[in-house]
User: Fold this.
Amino acid sequence: MIELYYWATPNGHKITIFLEEAALEYKIFPVDIRVGEQFKPDFLKIAPNNRMPAIIDRNPSDGGEAISVFESGAILQYLAEKTEKFLPTNLRDRKTVMEWLFWQMAGLGPMAGQNHHFTQYAPEKIPYAIERYVKETNRLYGVLNRQLEGKEYIAGDYSIADMACYPWIVPYERQQQNLEEFPNLKCWFESIRDRAAVIRAYAKAEPFANQPTMTEESKKILFGQTAATLTTEQEL
Assistant:
């Protein structure tokens, strides 16, 4: 049994996609980031960066005590190694998958996240910031489009690299991107979208994705924390 601490965000979707693809038994424990549940002491024990997703594996492959894992990329790698699925064992192919997994973690996710923040959530619309992150998102789409030239999947065979990248392309319209400009990316996107496991994963998100729209108080919780405020809250 995998315990998944989850909310319906791109990083959350990565893990449900893997779990559905691998047919692993799991249970979702929602972490409502709009009301600050990610800052609760019990959650911090498994996710010290105050971010979901995180997992607890109650049946680790070494037969020992339960293992917790935080950070979506680390979770994907852990689950791939546990199941021996979606991560090649040979040196060169594994290297390529890991390159693109880290590319998503270091590039596509953070830059698209800043795109979302400044175009949708920032209290002040700052033209420079909006232009900066919309253009950088566009550049990254171009990088992925070139990588997909002549390929069905990012690193050859379907892998955790595809699972990591796909959820960050889903909100392409919110990111002010046009998939028609990226034909290889568009073909790949539609192929992943139509996979049965991906459809199931996004269906699991519906009870959480359909929650009320983010409030001003939610924005303060999500975007207004510092080390000092978190320390104070955790002591209360």
